[in-house]
Amino acid sequence: MLFDRCSTPCRYFSIRRLNGNRVKIIYIGSSGSLSLIPLEQLLISDHSICAISVAEGSLDRAQDPRFPIVLEGPGSIESLARSNEIPVIRLPLDLSQSLVEIKRFEPDVILVSCFPRKLPNSILSIPTVGCFNLHPSLLPAYRGPAPLFWQFREGQTEFGVTLHRMSLQLDRGNIIGQLPVTIPDGVTIERANSLLATAGYQLLAQALADFEQAAVQEIPQDEGIASYQGFPSESDFAVSNQWTAKRLFNFIRATSEPGRIYPCTVGGHVYPLLKAITYQENGSAKMVATSTTVTIPCAQGYIIARVLAD
Question: I need a labelling partner for 136 at 20 to 30 A (CA). Which of 105, 116, 169, 192 fits?
């Protein structure tokens, strides 16, 4: 398996040899890139996907409107299912209502990426090998529903993706594999997800090959270094010139959206930042404000940003 870091001993789990050595897969996800790109690659590589599952659109949005999920359209996993003649399972808010439909496919593995709800034990216990989730951080750090937001906010420089066994506790199952991913300066969260998705497919492909050989290598997560963050609140978009200019620039660029304001208090005045234009990692600059832009000296370097006009 592919592991970025392993601080705890590995455990090996024997599973029955699969019929014909082909893993029957149910893929559960959304149409975000972290879900869509690995599925596209699995289909291209001719893995045995017997069904694709999505949340019912109206119920999913009612469950939490902050979860950015798109279910329809030409770039959706439903359109991939149709074009590849793969059955679609629409998962209701009460997931137990889908047990019969999931069981009839007799999956060996359920793969999950960007699905907004925890799977109950009644579903986790269906596949013969197990249920596995792609998570866009190097677990056990940054558990939770919005890991990329918090990694950018905290100025993280070590990004990555983890494939882990699913359990009843969110993002706490044994690690199957993980890969570090380099995220360039100034990218959006959508672009970062695309880069992580490419690495995520590598993890899935290697894991499926291991499953076909009837041996799974797993590493329990180290709870001593674990962290969890929930959905961000409005106050979490406030920024500080006590950050480095690079951190400030990358956070704004990653999370920017129409109408989003990033309050930044300097010398007792709050500047409503709209867009990060550029930054210098080294060097210094004086605080300069115009009607449309502001130059802000930071803990290291400085940033030039567009501000909301008075």
Answer: 105
Q: Could you name the CATH architecture of 11-225? A: 3-Layer(aba) Sandwich (3.40)
CA distances from 45 to 38, 49, 64 (A): 11, 11, 34
Tokens at residue 228, please?
């969890």
258 preceded by a cis bond (ω within 30 of 0): no
CB burial class (10 A; 0-12, 13-18, 19+) of residue 12? exposed
Instruction: Residues 234-307: name the CATH superfamily.
Output: Formyl transferase, C-terminal domain (3.10.25.10)
pLDDT in tens, the chain (310 residues): 454 444 444 444 444 444 456 789 999 998 889 999 999 999 999 889 999 999 876 333 333 444 443 333 446 888 889 999 999 999 888 888 889 999 999 999 999 999 888 899 999 999 999 999 999 999 999 999 999 999 999 999 899 999 999 999 999 999 999 999 999 999 999 999 999 999 999 999 999 998 888 777 899 999 999 999 999 999 999 999 999 999 999 999 999 999 999 999 999 999 999 999 999 999 889 999 999 999 999 999 999 999 998 7
What whole-number distance in Å separates Cα of residue 56 and Cα of residue 115?
A: 11
Which has the closest alpha carbon to 50: 28, 71, 70, 30? 28
